[in-house]
Amino acid sequence: MNIGEVSKLADVNSKMVRRYESLGIIPKAGRTDAGYRQYSQNDVHVLRFVKRSRELGFSMKDIKQLVSLWKNKSRSSVQVKSIATKHIDELQKKVNEIQAMLNTLNHLVKNCHGDQRPDCPILDELNCHHE
Fold it and tell me: How many domains does the chain have?
């Protein structure tokens, strides 16, 4: 398959196919005599795996490890679980940070009169110099 066909089947744009190839996530494509990249059905499976991993927010470093573990039939699931658990911890930290931002903004908006006066706790907070 050429890059257009594999990208369509995997639902990944051709730029990302080339990027994943350059990162070593999928093997270097074979080339036709004319120099066009040629991909296999296996490449489509790997690209779909990568796409789903990206949708779950895994980093490219983690995805590379996950692809390697997926291909390794003698792997232990503890390695996979460890990567996923670390990712859960990172996501939970981000959720907590976002919740703190929402709480602060909700408080500021609640305390802003939103009228013609210039007093504004939102701007006051943004102008606060923390040292």
Answer: 2
